[in-house]
Amino acid sequence: MKYRVSMMAVAMLFTANAGAQPTFGNPSPTAGSSTSQQANAAADVAAYKPVEYANKGKRGPDLVVIPGEIKSNNATFTQKFGPNNVADYAELELSQANFGVLERSNLGPLVNEISLAYNLGDPNKARQTMQIGKLKTTKWIVKFDILKAEQISEVKEGFDGRPVGSLLGGLIGGFGGHAAGTVAGSVQTREATGVWLIGMRYKIMDATTTEQVAQGYTEEKMEVGAKGSSVMGVSQSAKGGVGLDTMVQRLIQKSVWDIDSKYK
Length: 264
Description:
The protein is an alpha/beta fold.
């Protein structure tokens, strides 16, 4: 009897654990420290957050996302991002919003033919391509373009205590002046903030005619900052901000929210 009860308890525990989301430990040697808490608090702000799309309960049209254009000349952005990165995020969010997304990975070489037909606005080529397999049910072709990605401002400021330390040492004199000058001269502070502006356009095209059904534009500011201080050999520094990956994903989310709200 005890054995049966124990087996039932184990089974119940296993069932409960099977339904729980996996959790992971933190092997960092600074876990739980003040620096860890500050860094994690900043990371939590930048972490991915699902969007509750207004019409998620309604099935959206079947569509294909084709790679868009990156029109920014900023080397930092273009080295990190290409059209396929943006399209991957778009497929994810459009699926979350309950659109019928036929992923590019399932289309193979056809992606290039589809992209060419719709970028050129060639309805004959489009009709020919859309008669193949699962593409027959496709209603929309959607693309997301990065029209702007540039750092628009940067501000730096800081304080160097060495001149003040020398002045205090000379004015006060003696041991007291030396001590005051040493403390003041050891003070170093610095702070810098940069702001980017990133803009995204989406286009929805009719899968049969290649004509534009709708378009929209949205942009977001991205702030990146760093600060540090040092007094008598004790230093403290911090840096962070939302990264380019997160910014692109947030712009995709805003664009998909717009599509879900207006065009389903």
